[in-house]
Amino acid sequence: PADHGLDLAEKDFTVNTVAGAMKSFFSELPEPLVPYSMQVELVEAHSEYPGGTRFPTASSVSHNHRINLMTSENLSICFWPTLMRPDFSTMDALTATRTYQTIIELFIQQCPFFF
Q1: Tens-digit pLDDT profile for residues 30-84
Q2: CA triplet 103, 74, 99: central angle to 5 degrees?
Q3: Could you list the residue range(s) of the whole structural domain that residue 72 is in?
Q4: Total domains, the chain
Q5: Which residues, other chains included, contact 26 with Cβ-Cβ below 8 Å and sequence gap of 6+?
């Protein structure tokens, strides 16, 4: 099998370049990474736990938040619109933005479990 791994540490890419490439990749997918068909269920599940549930941070980027300032919350703020692509022309999507962001934050925190 081919090795599709890429060691970014040996490349001369800035963090912004890598983040921009990731956002571009996810925004060009035919359907968001979090499929539209699952978004309603995720919002409903989130509403059953008001105040949210906190889990230990698992993402390697957010694990180094003291150095890079990118906590799981900050990462989710940057990436939730690209990963979920809500229809902002509806009032439901506008009122659920915090919920969408929290769902992505939980995915980041629980990365080993989900992925």
Answers
A1: 999 999 888 888 888 888 776 555 555 557 788 888 888 888 999 999 999 999 9
A2: 25
A3: 15-47+67-110
A4: 1
A5: 32, 33, 79, 82, 83
